Fold this sequence. Notes:
Blueprint: H1 3-10, E1 25-34, H2 47-60, E2 65-66, E3 70-76, H3 82-90, H4 96-100, E4 106-110, E5 115-119, E6 125-132, H5 136-151, E7 158-159, E8 163-164, E9 176-183, H6 185-189, H7 193-202, E10 205-208, E11 221-226, H8 234-262, H9 264-280, H10 286-301, H11 312-319, H12 322-329, H13 335-355
Antiparallel strand pairs: 1-6, 1-9, 2-3, 3-4, 4-5, 5-6, 7-8, 9-11, 10-11
Protein name: Protein-arginine kinase
Catalytic activity: L-arginyl-[protein] + ATP = N(omega)-phospho-L-arginyl-[protein] + ADP + H(+)
Binding site for ATP: 27-31, 92, 126, 177-181, 208-213
Amino acid sequence: MSLQNFISKAISPWMKNEGPDSDIVLSSRVRLARNLSNVPFPITASKEKLEENILLVKDKFANKTHHKFGDLELLKMEDMKQNEKRVLVEKHLISPNLSDESKAGAVLLSEDESLSIMINEEDHFRIQVLLSGFELSKGLTYANEIDDWMEDKVDFAFIEKRGYLTSCPTNVGTGLRASVMMHLPALVITRQMNRILPAINQLGLVVRGIYGEGSEALGNLFQISNQMTLGKSEEDIVDDLRSVVSQLIQQERAARETLLHQSKIQMEDRVYRSFGILSYSRTMESKEATQRLSDVRLGIDLGFINDVSGNILNELMILTQPGFLQQYAGEILSPEQRDQRRATLIRERLKLEETD
């Protein structure tokens, strides 16, 4: 398969859109945790009970056409190869927990992969909507539509005093986790992030790396989300997050302007060095690749590079992950082989820009 065909099939269609403020906010995600009433939660349920839940989903939701998200396809974890599951994790469509630890896990996916409903992860259902750019309100609207659509057919565990009941106490109430993936290179370069991060945490939000809890903020990518779900409405939670993200966008833009006016030559040198290394390297570790790609994306946004798509960071941050590299190669690769394949894929991707 050619690289161009591989990219067109590998990248989720929603990622190709450019939503509001997409130069800084790469994506917005809204997730709702839900459990069936009078059924043991996944952490205590037997495999048989969890398989009954999958049959329920297959009967009521799978292979159905939703008016907004189109056809919904059910994928069972036990029917998938390990690398296929890894690819879904790298695309943020399922969690590592569902891939590796669920006794009987599955996922319900929309055609454009903007909707992912994880089944039998920590909770019976994790309804997740993914959108390009800064689209938290739209994401909440879409997630609530799916929530209502499902609740017409099944009963969720809910009590008036506490709200929706979940396996983890921090999700009780709305069951809502809203997050944005932000590219904040200028705030990192100007060393303002060290001051900003503690302030964000004090506001009841949490900052993580690209793959959530416990992951490193590689490539100057930060995932910012709410911590608490109890005691606030869904709208208030999203409004609080949107307010902080709006401020971060302004601060990042200001930091970029400062770099452009005070350190233009140094920034151009940094950007073009990274571009050159990505264009000609024969081996590339994941950590270096993400940092170099971050530099190039910043160079595109600052106007230094005009003939490369701004989506290249979004694409290559996923395509250069181990699962995708092995999917493209059609075989299991050693770490050294992955580093070589990563460098080759990046070179080929940049050459595609020259022929467009």
